[in-house]
C-alpha cells in the first residue's frame, strides 16, 4: 500500500507522486499536452473572432441600431468560458461512464435531428437549427462526436461475438442520419458522418473488398448527388465555375482565396484587413481567410500545424492501447475533428467547394463550441492513462 509522501515509478518509467484525491488522479492521467493544444486553439479563436467580429457586426447593423463591433468576440468569450469547464468535467469521467454518456446523448440528439423539419428555423435558406429561449443549437453538431462513439462501440462488439450484425446496424444508422441531413440540406455534415463511418470500418478490420465496394458506392453517390440534389450540384458548379456569369462577380471560395492571400506571409496587421469586409460569414465559415489577411500565411501554417499536432498526439497515445473500443472511439473522434478542420481550411484555400463548415475552436458559434468541447472531453476521457500502469516501484521521498 502506498503512503502519502512517496513516489512511484509509473507509465514509461515516469516518477509521479502518490496522491489520493480524484482531482490529483485526473491530473496525472490526463493528456496534458493534448489539453494544452486545445486551449491554445481556443485562445487563437478568440483573437480571430475579434478580428472578424466587425464584419459581422456591420452586416447586422441598421440605420436605426448600431451593433457593437466586438459583440461576437464577447459572445465567443462566454462560450469559451462555458465550453472549457464542460470539456474538463467530461474528461474526468471513467471510460465506461463516458461511453454511456455519449450513447445517451447520441440517442437524444438523433431525436432532435429528426425533429428539425418540424421545429427547426431557417437561416440562409437551410433549416438546421432549433430555437430555444435565448439559444439556437444545431443538433447535427452535437450528434457528430456521440455518433462516432456509438459506432465505435457497436464495431467493438465484433470482437466478442462475430455473428452480431454490427456492420448492418452502423450502415442503417449512418444512412438514417444522412437522409435527415440531406433534407435540411447539409451536404458538408453528410460527408463528415460518412467519412467517419468509413474510417471506423477500416480501423475495425473490415475486409479490403468491402472498403473498395464502399469507395465505389461513394463515387456513385456523388454522381447521384450531382444529378438529383440541387444544393450539392450548385456548390460543385460554383466551385468549378460552371454556369457562372462574369457579371455576378467572384463566388464565395474565390473571395476567400483572395482574402487569405491578400496579407502575404506576414499579414496586414490586426484590424487592417479590407478584403474581409467582402466575405460572407467572415466570423464563421471563412474566419481562416481573415486570419490569413491580417496575420499572414505563416499564421495559417502555424494553425494547421497545431491541428496536425493534435492528430499525431492522439495517434501516438493509441500505439500501446489494447482496448478495441478505446482505439476506435479515440481514432474516430480524431478523424471527425481533423476532417472538419481540413475541409474548412481547404474551402478557404479554394481546394474544396463551399460546405458551410466551421473551423474547430476558432470559428464563432455556440453550438460548435459546446459540441466540440463535448467531443474533446470524450477524447480526453478515452485517452487518459493510468500513470501507475506496469510494475510499481516505490521510491522513498528523501526531501531532497
Shape: globular
Rg (CA only) = 23 Å
N-to-C SSE string, H for helix and E for strand? EEHHHHEEEHHHHHHHHHHE
Low-pLDDT residue spans: 390-400
How do the strands of the widest beta sheet line up side by side?
2-1-6
Number of strands: 6
Alpha plus pi helix count: 14
For the residues shown, what is the average pLDDT? 82
What proportion of the residues form beta strands (DSSP E)? 5-15%
Tell me the domain tally.
1
The helix/strand class is: mainly alpha
Largest sheet: 3 strands, antiparallel
End-to-end separation in angstroms reads 23 Å
Task: Estimate the helix proportion, in percent.
Answer: 55-70%
Describe the structure.
With 400 residues, the chain is mainly α. It has one domain. It is built from 14 helices and 6 strands. It has helices spanning 22-29, 32-60, 71-91, 95-119, 139-156, 166-182, 187-203, 208-228, 230-240, 252-262, 287-295, 297-317, 324-348, 366-382; strands at residues 7-9, 15-17, 120-123, 126-132, 135-137, 394-395. The strands form 2 sheets. It has a 3-stranded antiparallel beta sheet, with no helix packed on it. It has a 3-stranded antiparallel beta sheet with strand order 3-4-5. Helix 6 (166-182) runs antiparallel to helix 7. The protein is globular. The two termini are 23 Å apart. The model is unreliable at 390-400 (pLDDT under 50).
